[in-house]
Design brief:
The chain is of the alpha/beta class. 19% of the residues lie in helices and 29% in strands. The strands form three sheets. The protein has a six-stranded mixed beta sheet, covered by helices on one side.
Length: 212
């Protein structure tokens, strides 16, 4: 049977909060751990305490309201780092195991890898998109992601393919003018974005200042 298809776009999620609709639902579950050591806290990392009962209750409530595709928006990870943390892996996989289809993260302000897991997908960080916190950011790479969702005649849903559109957060450099602009395919900038999203980027872990 031919599935029905829909598309959704996500890029540079800057914050999170609960929302539900007839077709989809989302849940934010991020907690700053007050017991985190001062040295770790100084790296601007976000630590987690997963409330499994709260997640289960939220999933059940969204399902009861008719949500078919569940999206978790999480504020996590280490700021200005291209690398993910073990706690992120654990939380992202837990959310998918509990029924979420898509996990989309923010906080690092840089692009991080995309990982598929158990039929779901984890977008660890899509970086900035329209971000007014820095007029001269050292890393202007970002991306638009178009995620296909398949809905079958029997009512079941699954994730389909995705399209990645590498972009710069500004149409000019070095100043950020808040006009995201796609990179041209085949350029070093385009390929660099793809490498950050597929996890092959060879950066040293923190944002460099790219020559333009």
């Amino acid at each position: 049977m031919t599935p029905l298809t829909t598309s959704s776009n996500a890029s540079g999620v800057s914050d999170c909060g609960p929302s539900q609709s007839a077709a989809s639902g989302s849940l934010c579950t991020s907690i700053i751990n007050p017991s985190a050591p001062a040295a770790a806290a100084a790296t601007a990392a976000v630590f987690f305490q997963t409330d499994n009962a709260a997640i289960d209750a939220a999933v059940a409530e969204m399902r009861a309201q008719g949500a078919q595709v569940l999206v978790a928006l999480v504020h996590w990870g280490s700021e200005n780092s291209y690398h993910t943390m073990a706690d992120q892996d654990k939380l992202g996989q837990t959310l998918i195991d509990k029924g979420f289809h898509i996990v989309a993260g923010s906080h690092p302000h840089l692009l991080q890898k995309i990982s598929e897991y158990a039929g779901g997908v984890i977008y660890y960080s899509l970086g900035n998109f329209c971000f007014g916190g820095n007029h001269y950011p050292t890393d202007m790479d970002t991306a638009i992601v178009q995620q296909q969702v398949l809905r079958y005649p029997d009512g079941t849903v699954a994730l389909g393919g995705r399209t990645l559109i590498p972009c710069c957060i500004s149409s000019e450099t070095p100043r950020n003018n808040f006009q995201p602009t796609p990179y041209e395919a085949g350029t070093e900038y385009y390929d660099r974005v793809i490498s950050k999203l597929d996890g092959t980027f060879k950066g040293n872990g923190t944002a460099p200042k790219y020559p333009r």
